[in-house]
Amino acid sequence: MDDRTSLAERFEEDRGHLKAVAYRMLGSASEAEDALQESWLRAAQADTSGVENLTGWLTTVVGRVCLNILRTRRTRREDPLDAYDVRARGTGEGDDPEQEALLADSVGLALLVVLDSLAPAERLAFVLHDMFAVPFDEIGPMLDRSPTAARQLASRARRRVKGRTVLPDADLARRRRVVEAFLAASRGGDFDALVALLHPDVVLHADRSVVPTPEPVVVRGAHTVARGAMAATGRALFTGVALVDGAVALAMAPLGRLRLVLGFTIVDGLVTDIDVVADPDRLIGFEVGFLDS
Q: Residue 158: what are its φ and ψ, rounded to 5°?
């Protein structure tokens, strides 16, 4: 068996692992597949006769390809929020938007949002080291930096990922249960469950970018707010629980890009106010953190 055949077999054996690396680096299943194809083309042309750990070596190849993509990536076009009603029309990117949503959900949408906010070097250092145990001795040369500098990049990214909380742990847990239940009911189209979570006099405020409308929208009453949530079940597929400015919230992030935030005021276990934000200028100012499961 020649080296190329051995490498091809190892690449296929490691494809799941390599795609996981690429997905966390890029936040898109279709881009991750493209990165794997480019990585194979590069790997196939390399001399691997002296490589002892092919899996580790392939991981670094994928990491380098993804780093180049991140450095050259242009901001995706700003689609209207209705473009993310995937049950009606899909995301416009990738072959299977619902599968993309499931993959994002398995990783954590909030984590993808935070990773997307990191500089490419920070993202590479954090993903490879903290998620895939690649030593800093290998990460540093990929970034043209010392292992110590790579460690500092990962540490900086780790602080961003963790975020901050303004609530005691017990209050955080109680609010998280309510927000998670709201998301589950929205995804499942369970109208009665939604109403049960809402105060009868709940008020929802949505900025002009949400619909969009000339003026902000105000909706009052549990049944009216619940009906609105039922109409957005497609969006809910790309929505996850996150820490936003230290409070438990919902973040809608198709392809890892933050597009909408729902903030909740919760009193005695019921939602009394919902603030829906889609204004890009406001979204940029939010500090998003990942909630551990």
A: -60, -40
Strand partners, 243: 248, 289
- The pTM assigned to this predicted structure is 0.72
To the nearest whole number, what is the mean pLDDT of the chain? 85
Topology of the domain covering 3-162 = Butyryl-CoA Dehydrogenase, subunit A; domain 3 (1.20.140)
- How high is the pLDDT of residue 172? 84
For residue range 21-57, list pLDDT tens digits in order.
999 999 888 899 999 999 999 999 988 878 888 899 9
Tokens, residue 38: 């480019």
Neighbours of 35 (CB within 10 A): 27
Give CA–CA dist 288/113, Å, rounded.
7
Contact 276, 210 (CB under 8 A): yes
Alpha carbon separation from 267 to 18, 116, 247 (Å, rounded): 45, 33, 14
Residues 204 and 219 sit within 8 Å (Cβ to Cβ): yes
271 secondary structure, DSSP code? E
Residue 224 has pLDDT above 90, yes or no: yes
Q: Which fold has domain 169-289?
A: Nuclear Transport Factor 2; Chain: A, (3.10.450)
Q: Is the pLDDT of residue 86 over 60?
A: no
Start and end residues for every CATH 1.20.140 domain found in the chain:
3-162
Q: What pLDDT, in 10s, does the model give residues 172-222?
A: 889 999 999 999 999 889 999 999 999 999 999 999 888 777 888 999 999
Residue 263 DSSP class: E
Closest CA to 237 of 184, 199, 201, 290: 184
Tokens of 58: 């392939």
Q: In which residue ranges of the chain is CATH 3.10.450.50 found?
A: 169-289
For residues 290 and 160, what is the distance between their CA atoms, to the nearest angstrom? 9
